[in-house]
Amino acid sequence: MAQSMGMRQLQVNRRARIKSIDAGGELGRRIRDMGLVPDTEIQVVGKAPLRDPVAVRLRDFTLTLRNNEADFITVDLLEN
Amino acid sequence: MPSTITLALAGNPNSGKTTMFNALTGARQHVGNYPGVTVAKKEGRLHAQGRDLLVVDLPGTYSLTPYSDEELAARNFLLNERPHAVVDVLDANTLERSLYLAVQLLELGAPLVLALNMMDEVRRRKVHIDSGLLSELLGVPVVETVARDGSGKDVLIREAVAFAESRRGSAEPLRISYGPDVDAALDEMAPHIERTHFLTDRAPARWVALKYVEGDPDLRQRAREVNGLAELLEPIALRVAEHLQRTENAAPEAVIANYRYGYIASLMRQGVQQKDTTVERIRRSDQVDRVVTHPLLGPVIMLAVLYGMFQITFVVGEIPMGWLEEFFGWLSGTAAAAIPEGPLQSLVVSGVIDGVGGVLGFVPLILVMFFCLSFLEDLGYMARLAYMLDRVFRAFGLHGSSVMPFIISGGIPGGCAVPGVMAARTLRSPREKLATILTAPFMSCGAKVPVFILLIAAFFPESGGDALFLITLGAWAMTLLVAKLLRLTAIKGPSTPFLMELPPYRIPTLRGMLIHTWERGWQYIKKAGTVILAISILLWAAMTYPGLPDDQAAVFEAQRASIQAEIDALPAPAMPEDVQPEAAVGAEPAEGEAVENPALAALEEKLAEVDNQEAEATLRNSLAGRLGVALEGISSLAGFDWRTNIALVGGFAAKEVIVSTLGTAYSLGEVDPEESESLSERLVSDPAFSMWTAISLIVFTILYAPCFVTVVTMAKEASWKWAGFSMAFNTILAFAASVLVYQIGSRL
After folding, report:
1. Is the pLDDT of residue B582 over 60?
2. How many angstroms separate the CA of residue B717 from the nearest CA in chain A?
3. Domain locations in chain A?
4. Does domain B180-275 have CATH number 3.30.390.80?
5. Is A66 close to B498, i.e. CB distance below 8 A?
6. What pLDDT shows up at residue B287?
7. Where along chain B do its domains lie?
8. In this predicted structure, what is the pLDDT of residue B293?
9. Which of B618, B708, B716 is nearest to B669 (CA)?
10. Which is higher by pLDDT, B486 or B171?
11. A 23-62 near B (Cβ less than 8 A)
12. Per-residue pLDDT reduced to its tens digit, B293-314
């Protein structure tokens, strides 16, 4: 059984699959526009020097988002 | 088919769309604005396939939802102008995500041609894309391109023209399923839309229905204006939204997006893209980022880059700036010699040439700054900068990308707010961008520094460096605090989502950087020729008219005549006698002469003094001077007398004018801002000018209305409303702060 957690909790280099996205309005729209939809595989590839925002790899590109934006996204942890 | 075919270029940011636009149209570009929004609209022409083509570069967007001005501009262009063909430039490296926009364009029924760009990188990554299959599945032409070296662009144009001719500007919209609930709602809504002809001349009814279900605010507003339509559509949209919330715990637009990605995933599965997943190559960009965004090394590199960029802009920019200054100096001299003395000469020399010359002097700075900026942006470093600094700037309601405009504006003393405000174009978040534009002029620009140095030299001669450092820190603090204040009041609103692509590092093309640089510089030059010329003449007039009344002018004339008589009475040495009073203004008597003839030198000095006194009286009597005198009642609260007031009014033309005007007001003639020792001494010896007056004046200079060139630039980048706001708000803020400082300080 995969472990569910908020995307903020993901450590660098951990892989996960998006379980659900809880954002509406403009933020929800932006999140979807960038390809973050349920069942997408992601990997955290880095964090900014102040640990926020984070850089995430998905669909062959790198995306950055703030921790408080990642809070709307729940993921299932994947084995590395 | 009309003789000119319109091609629209669509695509994600960083897809190489602009590079493609440059490759297609070369330098034959025209920059305008989309109606109603401050989004730049670039057009270019070319002749190919026996036709004239008009290529419109749509703003780079990830989607067609009208959430940002860019997206709204792009969508309205497609809806209203119906281009004959739409070329979607995709970064083929991120095919899945890039197809999301393509699918939306196809839903709209746009006559789409796909350009799979950056195919060279795709091949290097050993990824196989079957463009033939993609073309077959989507039913549109797909062309492989590399915009950087132009390969594939001829095929692209050929396909686009052929497609435009065969489809006559419209195409069968793509119909995909969004699940039974949404599909049923669309089927129910479409007949209503067709019957009322709501947008049906521009878009398929099913697309309109889809946007309605998605909750598109622009479209819902328009539907309300059609009699009875909203009443029919609203309940259907509401019903499907409630149903989806109950059964899938998701909003309709989320469900629709999922189905779009599902459709794209099915394309991939059918063999459009195959990659060797056994070796997950470590990408070079990621390796670079491990150093460049490292918790310790990252900030160090960042400081070096920011400092380096600043140095290049102002050190390199200064060289051609000097040439321009010399040229305008020569022009002034020539004009002064050619036009007889009088109001016309003054207008041409002091109003037109000095004004426009001062403004065009910024052009080299702007060109060099934009060259550096486009290098960093095309390289991909600007995105990293925003990424690293976002946490800091977000605390003040700004964005990580705000750092560049601040630095250029004078975050390192000596910058300039004109290119600084223009550098805010890299911000994609409207509220953060506006707050950045409005606060960047607080920084210590190169024209304010002489004012600071003058006052420091006069009142804090011991601690020059420390004082300037403190002023710089103070400017930063005020910039950030005011930004926070604005974001809590006038520009209230949640922070724009940060979600942003970190594009892979790519070496910029020289051609792209040059085109970008020239475009910005040219826009500025055009402005200088019109609005700025007009304002500079107005300011000149305000500081010149009305002239001294005849009786007062006669007094100075009489004084001059009597001194001249004394000079004439001196035993004539072998030197030119006919010293023109005008030529003596501001010029000290040449030292060689003083040694030769002390009596003559003393008299000439007296003559110059009379001229300076007359200049002071004239300035005081001018419109600006009267304003300064009239304001003395209020301004004395901050410790400013009429002299300082006039100087500050003059500072609206350009901040370095504060020093020279103060010189005139203190009867010193025009003081060169670079050599203001005499003025420093005068200020110290003026009993009305205390240390706290100086501090109060420093505070005021940091904060008050930006110079008018900056104001015009702000109007161009934001709006006249906000530019006006900045003039009024900054001046009030400056005055409040100065009064506070002066009143508390002088009581200590």
Report:
1. no
2. 24
3. 4-77
4. no
5. yes
6. 87
7. 4-167, 180-275, 282-546+622-748, 550-620
8. 93
9. B618
10. B486
11. 24, 26-35, 37-38, 40, 45-46, 48-53, 55, 59-62
12. 999 999 999 999 988 888 888 7
Nearest chain B residue to A38 by CA: give it.
Answer: B258
In the predicted structure, residue A16 carries a pLDDT above the cut 50? yes
CA B386, CA B495: separation in Å to the nearest integer?
Answer: 14
CB burial of residue B176 (10 Å; 0-12, 13-18, 19+): middle
DSSP B437-494: HHHGGGS-BTTTHHHHHHHHHHH-GGGHHHHHHHHHHHHHHHHHHHHHHHHHTTT-SP
Average pLDDT over every residue of B94-98: 94
Give the pLDDT confidence score for residue B281 in this predicted structure.
57
- In whole angstroms, give the CA distance from residue B720 to residue B718: 7
pLDDT digits (tens, 9 = 90+) for B195-225: 999 998 889 999 999 999 998 888 899 899 9
Q: Check residue A49 and give its pLDDT.
A: 93
Q: CB distance B95–A60 less than 8 Å?
A: yes
Kindly state whether A68 is in contact with chain B, defined as any CB-CB distance less than 8 angstroms.
no
Q: B97 to chain A: which residues are within 8 Å by CB?
A: 34-35, 59-61
Closest by CA to B484, choosing from B529, B435, B535, is: B435
Q: Answer whether residue B705 shows pLDDT above 90.
A: yes
The CATH fold of domain B4-167: Rossmann fold (3.40.50)
pLDDT exceeds cutoff 80 at B579: no
> Chain A residues with CB inside 8 Å of B286's CB?
45, 62
Average confidence (pLDDT) over B143-155: 94
Which chain A residues are Cβ-neighbours of B392 within 8 angstroms?
A: 50
pLDDT at residue B390 tops 70: yes
Joined together, the tokens standing for residue B223 give: 């539907």
CATH assignment of A4-77, among 2.30.30.90, 1.10.10.1100, 3.40.50.920, 3.40.50.300: 2.30.30.90
Distance separating alpha carbons of residues B117 and B143, to the nearest angstrom: 8
Residue B224, token pair as written in the block = 């309300």
Identify residues of B whose CB sits under 8 angstroms from chain A CBs: 62-63, 65, 67, 91, 93-97, 100, 249, 251, 253-254, 257-258, 261, 285-286, 289-290, 293-296, 298-299, 383, 387-388, 390-392, 394, 496-504
* pLDDT exceeds 50 at position B279: no
The DSSP H or E segment spanning B360 is helix B354-360
Three-state DSSP state, B436: helix
Q: Measure the CA–CA gap between B142 and B484, rounded to whole angstroms.
A: 48
Q: Convert B682-718 to b/e letters by CB count within 10 Å (16 or more is b).
A: bbeeeeebbebbbbbbbbbbbbbbbbbbbbbbbbbbb
pLDDT of residue B594: 46
Quick one: average pLDDT of B8-26? 92
* pLDDT value for B572: 64
Of A26, A49, A62, the CB nearest to B501: A62
* pLDDT over threshold 50, residue B586: no
